[in-house]
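Design review, sub-item: ligand-bound model
Attendees: FS, YL, KQ
YL presented the inputs for the FE2/S2 (inorganic) cluster complex:
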Amino acid sequence: MSGWTKVAKLADVAEGAAVPVEAGGRQLALYNLGGGEMRCTANVCTHAFALLTDGWLEEGVIECPLHGGRFDVRTGKGLCAPIEEDIATFPVRAEGEDILVELP
Ligand code: FES
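KQ shared the predicted structure:
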């Protein structure tokens, strides 16, 4: 599955929430940053195995629940130790009631 793929309903991702979804065999994280801004990254931390959606989202930064690594969810950039590798990001858009993610 590639191209724009429906992954959730807008109503499923409340403002300030980080929600796990699966599409195209990938585990993804959807983030509602407020003001209509939606973002998507891979959900599995690049450090070890943890789901970022089990962590804490604040001001566009997700903190991993396992060792406290943080990523900028807009760029995927790893912001602090122990993160050594940035996380993949994917384009997101809303269409009607749906959230679509563009998968490679
Ligand atoms: S698994 Fe995410 S910081 Fe270690």
